[in-house]
Write the structure tokens for this entry.
Amino acid sequence: MGAIKAGWAETDITPPLGLPMGGRGPRFAPGAAVLDPLLAQALVLEDAYGSRTLWISVDQEGIARDRVVKLRYDLAALTDVPYEAIIINCSHTHSGPLGNFSMLATCSTPPDALVAYENERDHQILRLGQEAVDKLRTVKVTWHLGQSYIGINRRQRDATGATIMAPNPDGSYNPDLWVLNLVPISGNDSCLLFSYGCHPVIVYGFQWDGISADYPGVARRRLKQRLGQQVHCQFFQGLAGDVRPRILADVDRINFRRSTPADVDRVGARLAEDVLHTLKMEGEPLDLNLAAVSGWIQARRDPRRIPPLSHWETLAGQEDELSRNVGEYWLQHLQTGRPIARAVPWEIGLIRLTSQHRIAWFAGEPLAAWLTHVRDALADARLVAWGYCQDTSGYLPTDEQLSAGGYEVIESAQLFKNGPGPFAPSLTLAVQQRFQALARFIQKMT
């Protein structure tokens, strides 16, 4: 039987100027300045039995599913890591290039320069996976759980009872901060992984056309300043679908204020300090016994709640680019009688590090309340959860949130080709049952 091994690597994936930016209303606003670099990072873990898992983190708003499928397939071939054990997690920075163009409800076509950038980025990610495998070395692995309070729920009721995007101190929110520390048996480098769930939406508030990794980039740099430049610091986005930076919340006025450059530095620095504090707490050494499974739920749409043609005609006549873009797409789609999605196949998965240490992951943008639901379903109070894995085209609300409505339930469903109606009830039970089935399957794996 061999030793526990790990290998890691990173590369710069900062786009050229002029590409459309993601995660904002006017979809095709071009990036005009690089504030800090965007990174792609990779970690390969190998247990004593030779089983492997590969985790890729990218500073992108998202990557289209068709590209992710090909990336995972090619990485499996190049690294000898099973397809289901390969995770591509997007930080979801709103100050990076538009990455899921093919999933958007738009009649436009992607610019050639954007396609060229994505092709080169994908080649870099493939090389990154190979490099991480080539650097495998014996390590000690320690699991740490802490807390951070840099986020706040963003779903609030207004005076009329409607759900709006505003700070809600009483809303669902996960302060959980997960840290995995990997220290080689020999050598002076090390690897630090940390995961937290909060939207990276600070930078575009003060510089709309600025390219930046937002607060996760600041946190990584601060950690390297404190721990040493030889330390690989890698961030995984958690369940951030309805969580925004607390520093921007004006609870009394029930809104989020405009951000400043100081805000992104403060939030990133605070998260870095919380990671360091968590690292100082007693951790749990892990004797890895790796396994990974993935599956799908059928997230059904509610056809009764699809707006009439008049709704799309109104949107198509609006001045703002996003409304006009979405209205034109669905107006054309529905008028020509093209079929609409009855359900969205939604990918989820489970990674076993040991029998007592597991990570659940979701495609898309899962809302924070899912952590409690999945922990309850798996009877695992320490379960770690990631969102934004494999695909980011759409929000995943729980049944309680479906009934409350709001942007993540109604408007966001219209933005993607798998819309335009909101989901139907029964999501919570479907997700819980599917995770339970995955857990039973992974328990049988040696």
Remarks:
- Residues 5-156+165-285 form one domain.
- Residues 58 and 90 are 5 Å apart (CA to CA).
- The longest strand covers residues 343-354.
